[in-house]
Amino acid sequence: MSKKFQTKVNDTYEFNFSEEDILKQDVHKISENEFHLILEHQSYNVEVVKRDLRNKSYVLKINSNLYEVKISNTLDLLIKDMGLSLGTAVKENEIKAPMPGLILEINVEEGQEVKEGDALLVLEAMKMENTITATYDATIKSISVKNGQSVAKNELLIELE
Prior knowledge:
Layout: E1 4-9, E2 13-18, H1 19-23, E3 26-29, E4 34-39, E5 42-52, E6 57-62, E7 65-72, H2 74-81, E8 90-91, E9 94-96, E10 101-106, E11 113-114, E12 119-125, E13 128-133, E14 138-143, E15 150-151, E16 156-160
Antiparallel strand pairs: 1-2, 1-7, 3-4, 4-5, 5-6, 6-7, 8-9, 9-16, 10-12, 10-15, 11-14, 12-13, 14-16
């Protein structure tokens, strides 16, 4: 199943696309924050000016113009469609399941230091794989689940310190 994304640019324009759409683009990485894009026979210089991984928002400078871009992935869109909120998934130092599902993969160990945006585990829900990421730099205090375990909504997955 293809991953779906939705972007909102400057809180005005919305765009929907798939992972395949992204892979078709002619993009070349110049440096950590700079890219060159050719789209519909036009050249664009793209610079990532600011990134907020927790809120999945970026400020991009494209050919001298600034754009604020907010990205929603498959999990975000599913949660929105179900009328749920990710706000309950993170409480202080606890990562909780945003929805019922099955733990497919655990990518961290107790005592491991993680950075904001690092993949902690993969939760399968409604036949979709959803990567749960660290919302800030932290250390893994405890892991409350195992591979193959079914979890309920709001069940504690990982505790951070």
